[in-house]
Amino acid sequence: MLALKDSPLLIARTFEELKITSTRSTVVCAAKGKRPRYPRVWKTPKRIGTISKAAKLVQSIKELSNVKEEVYGALDTYVAWELEFPLITVKKALKTLEYEREWKRIIQVTKWMLSKGQGKTMGSYFTLLNALAEDDRLDEAEELWTKLLMQYMESLPRRFFDKMISIYRKRGMHEKMFEIFADMEELGLRPNVSVVSMIGDVFKELGMLDKYEKLHSKYPPPKLEYRYIRGKRVRIRKQGQSNQVNNDIEKQDNVEPNSDINEDDISEEDSDVIDDEQFNQDANVTCMEPEQISDESYESMEPVLDV
């Protein structure tokens, strides 16, 4: 019978052919090693990050005077070789200037950016409003506020109202505070705790206790707060917040107009009792499990009154 197996001579011949073809494809230099590779011509060097660019921009602006044309010219030369407007770099530069409290530079850079048609966001407008208020340019801040209120009436964020109320509170302009608060109620914006406390303090200063009571009955303080217990964020029910308004009214009714109240008149026994009660409350909170606390606080929630 015929044998179908290959002869050893045929196997050796095919192995030599494979070896020859494999050696032909490799390129070996004179030093008998891999050919050295050089960096390509079209590879760009390491690019400068936005943080270093923002620092360079801030440093170039600080050395200038407060002349508008000089600052705008420096900013134009900085952006001249950019293919796109460096919005991220400018935003980081504004954050750096805000941290250093350079309010005039913030106003100049923000107005220059807005004049270029870039960065027209609520964050940019809020930064400009804050800088104008800190630089005691109240007229320009009010002009910007009215422009934003007329243009973005229903979509204006609540923090703009909070900022204007705080600005008027620092300057003792109570009537304008009440106007902005009335605008918030008309637009259906619920004020936060800080705004309610500022308006309530003004009512107490002016002796309007009935309005103070109505304000806190309409916007009661939140009954829940967040605390970190054993590394977890847990909702806990606040204690002693419901009787705060009544206590303030009773104190002002009982105190005579010419009498002076000192904090030293409080007895030591009452303070010790308060400290012991607070310590027991904290101990009970830490002993409870976080899930149990969150479930109980969620069940104790009540619907809040509408504005």
Describe the protein's architecture and organization.
The protein has 14 helices and two strands. The chain has helices at residues 8-25, 50-62, 68-79, 87-99, 103-115, 122-134, 138-151, 158-170, 174-187, 193-206, 209-218, 244-254, 268-287, 290-299, and strands at 224-229, 232-237. Helix content is 61%, strand content 4%. Helix 10 packs antiparallel against helix 11. Mean pLDDT is 76; it is low at 17-26, 255-276 and 285-307. It has a two-stranded antiparallel sheet. It is mainly alpha-helical. Strand 1 and strand 2 form a beta hairpin.
Number of strands: 2
Quaternary arrangement of the chains shown?
Answer: single chain
Mean pLDDT: 76
Q: How are strands sequenced across the largest beta sheet?
A: 1-2
The major beta sheet can be summarized as: 2 strands, antiparallel
Give helix and strand order, one letter per element, not per position: HHHHHHHHHHHEEHHH
The parts where pLDDT drops under 50 for at least 5 residues are 17-26, 255-276, 285-307
Q: Rg to the nearest angstrom?
A: 36 Å
Summarize the structure.
With 307 residues, the chain is mainly alpha-helical. The protein is built from 14 helices and 2 strands.
